[in-house]
Amino acid sequence: xRGAPLTPPDAWLFHDDERTKAAFxxxxxxxxxxxxxxxxxxxxxxxxxxxxxxxGGENVASREVEEMIYRLPQVSEVxxxxxxxxxxxxxxxxxxxxxxxxxxxxxxxxxxxAEHLAAFKVPKDIVFAEALPxxxxxxxxxxxxxHKHARLFxx
Length: 155
Known about the structure:
Layout: H1 17-23, E1 33-37, E2 43-48, E3 52-55, E4 58-61, H2 62-69, E5 75-85, E6 89-98, H3 106-116, E7 125-128, H4 142-148
Parallel strand pairs: 6-7
Antiparallel strand pairs: 1-2, 3-4, 5-6
């Protein structure tokens, strides 16, 4: 169901008129979320535009890879990011926190992903971490992971 075009109140401007104007282009609010609409009109958010990984000419939704890795019972947390790569432009990298008292190998994760995902979506590398970076309200900070692992492939 479509409603009236959104008009931002002046309080939303935060002194950045250009970005505010761009966010409301065409009468719609462009949040940066990527979504699909099914035949019944339901909207499903699938990822954030800034989290889309461009690898070897293909787009990879980080959330899709994360959901596949979360199927492994040993995984406590996972974040998938794209990092610079000379051949692929960006490489898919999974940063994983393993549940306490559990063990998990890179080979097991890679095999699991290769069995269930297209080859270009399978992480090129897997990094194990004690915790994932979060802001004070608990939001995952993928930009910190991209920055921390930017030189993983020598870039």
